[in-house]
Amino acid sequence: SETDVLLKFKDSLANDAALSNWNASTNPCSDNKVRWIGVLCTKDRTVMGLQLENMSLTGLVDVDTLMALPDLRTLSFSNNSFDGPMPNLKQLSSLRSFFLSYNRFSGEIPDDAFLGMGSLKKIYLQQNSFSGKIPTSLTKVLKLLELRLDSNQLEGKIPNFQQKGLQLVNVSNNSLRGSVPKSLSKMDLSFFSGNKALCGEPLLACKTKKPTMLVIIIAIVAIFVILAAIVSAIVVVLLRLRKKHQPSKMRRTPCSTNPKKVASYDATKQNYNWGSAETSPCSKGQNGKLVFVRDDREKFELQDLLRASAEVLGSGTFGSSYKAALFSGPVMVVKRFKLMNNVGKEDFQEHMRRLGRLQHPNLSSLVAFYYRKDEKLLVSEFVQNGSLASQLHGKRTPEMPGLDWPTRLRIIKGVAKGLIYLYNELPSLTVPHGHLKSSNVLLNESFDPLLADYGLIPIVNKDQAEQYMVAYKSPEYEQYNRTTKKTDVWSFGILILEVLTGKFPENYLKQGKSGTKSNLASWVNSVIREEWTGEVFDKDMKDTKHGEGEMLKMLKAGLQCCEEDIEKRWDIDEAVERILELRERDDDEDYYSSYASEGDIYSSRAMTEDGFSFSVHT
Ligand SMILES: Nc1ncnc2c1ncn2[C@@H]1O[C@H](COP(=O)(O)OP(=O)(O)OP(=O)(O)O)[C@@H](O)[C@H]1O
Predict the structure, then answer these.
(1) Is 440 close to ligand 1, i.e. is its CB under 6 Å away?
(2) How confident is the model at residue 137, as a pLDDT?
(3) What is the pLDDT of residue 595?
(4) What pTM was computed for the model?
């Protein structure tokens, strides 16, 4: 009977004076008046629970015996003096609640202590000396509403409770660590306090996982600083680019920034005073002197150049060129190079001296140079009639009516002579000129050509050279990334075609439909293929009447020099030889007539042995 069960249970207790009315002569639930102390009964007078609180009980909680009470739903032994490990209550799988708080229970609670207790709603274990981890089997008690584990010596992390109905989980005053599970974050903060290493809502945020407000503010400030730095860097770069790309019309000092090269020809010239030596950028940090490459001419100082009134001649790819009339008479041209650091100072000076030794009627001679690490100035004599480019493409005026054929022929021949001289004098250079184009062919008072800007490939910065210098626009460089001894011949060929057609070569450098590059030579070829050879010649070219034959031969020579297949392209010797053998017109009438008759053959539009047909324009 239940009487026997409870008396047996009482036997295992010690200090049980409070249970004095528990005796075998009465039934625990028989009569309200004599109901046993601390026994809770159902309506049917069966034992439903034990509420043995505040009785100073000690001894053993005999769970095995209690298993014989089929309707037992609740047990409370709160505020007694029980000690030892937690009773094995999971055997009482129908329990709805149990209260062991305020005793001296100790030791670890087995991890599976609550397994199978599917009806349990309230577990009160607070104010004992339990140690070890919170058993994970608690998370499986699906109906759990209230759990009190506070004021023990529990450690480790709080398991991840997921029960929907949980109303209270108090784990305060233990030694728990880690973060409060999200499912418990809305509970009262006091349920978690007293655990030094516990964090997360409702406690303070965990440092490792969530940044504090201060950290967030610092991060935001840092992002702003970085953004500001990036924006200012972009602004600086844009300003520099803008400065660099200012059109050549802007007034410049010889030390101002190199503007971007434009594809169209710009013959604009402006008078400009360089200002005092102090205000000129050239004077800042200027500790070097002009170095004269020859002894046979009058010397002057850099200051003399800076003091002279200057005219901007133009802005090339490497820097601007200035015309400076010295007080003592001579007129010089100073070209400012920013990007000439391919070699060190010694090699640079050596190369300059080498160029300075070159003397030829068709070369513009280097007079002096100035070396500074970040910029170089090359000084040469001013050449009277400007460049071949300005003569071919500049605005037509009564003073600049357009070059006639005899002059053009003489110019091409002069260029050929200058070129072969460079090949002979600079044999170690694969590309002795390297930058042969019409703006680098200057014309003296008799319209004889003088080559300029030659022999610079070894000293110009490689990147810049590859980007801007004429040699690197050649088919062999475009296709195979290499230059050869015939590369200058190709530039010469383009120059010849430019002189004959009056077309500006850079305007014909295009990517073709098939991916192939087109150039002035391919344009000329296409016109010839259409049998409109006469159409290729410059309409502004005067005095062609007796020169058609030579013009045609020159056209062929130009195309031979522009042959894309290097094997088929003439070498410099052949090119020069063929060009120099072309006859120049003189006052000999016989010559006129023979020349004219040759032209007449072509003007009949018959195909010639060279494969050209020719129709004379008027
Ligand atoms: N010694 C000179 N006498 C007269 N005009 C010159 C002289 N040197 C250069 N020029 C002219 O000054 C202008 C600018 O020349 P610059 O050499 O600076 O540029 P570019 O030849 O157009 O291009 P790049 O820098 O690619 O050579 C050109 O029209 C050029 O013909």
Answers:
(1) yes
(2) 94
(3) 36
(4) 0.56
Q: How far apart are CA 587 and CA 580, in angstroms?
A: 19
How far, in Å, CA of 376 to CA of 218, rounded?
48
Cα(312)–Cα(252) distance, integer angstroms: 7
For residue 294, how far is the Cα from the chain centroid? 48
**Pocket flag, ligand 1, residue 464 (CB < 6 Å):** no
Residue 291 contacts residue 367 (beta carbons within 8 Å): no
Residue nearest to atom 17 of ligand 1 (CA): 316
Query: How many of the other CB atoms lie within 10 Å of CB of 139?
Result: 18
321 lines ligand 1 (CB under 6 A): yes
Separation of CA 316 and ligand 1 centre (Å):
7
Distance 386 CA to ligand 1 centre (A): 8
pLDDT at 459: 94
Write the DSSP symbol of residue 588.
Answer: -
Q: How far apart are CA 50 and CA 16, in angstroms?
A: 14
| 441 C-alpha to ligand 1 centroid (Å) | 9
Distance 116 CA to ligand 1 centre (A): 98
Give every residue of the chain whose pLDDT is below 50, as ranges.
246-286, 587-618
In the prediction, which pLDDT does 206 show?
A: 84
What pLDDT was estimated at residue 557? 96
Distance 379 CA to ligand 1 centre (A): 12
CB 392 within 8 A of CB 498: yes
Q: Per the structure block, which two tokens stand in for 230?
A: 């990036």
Q: What angle do CA 563, 404, 439 make, to 5 degrees?
A: 60
DSSP 431-462: SSS---SGGGEEE-TT--EEE-S-S-TTTS-H
- The closest alpha carbon to 291, from 335, 358, 356, 374, belongs to 356
Residue 412 burial (CB count, 10 A): 24
* CA 379/CA 386 separation, integer angstroms: 16
HEC per residue, 500-546: HHCCCHHHHCEECCCCCEECHHHHHHHHHHCCCHHHHCCCCCECCCC
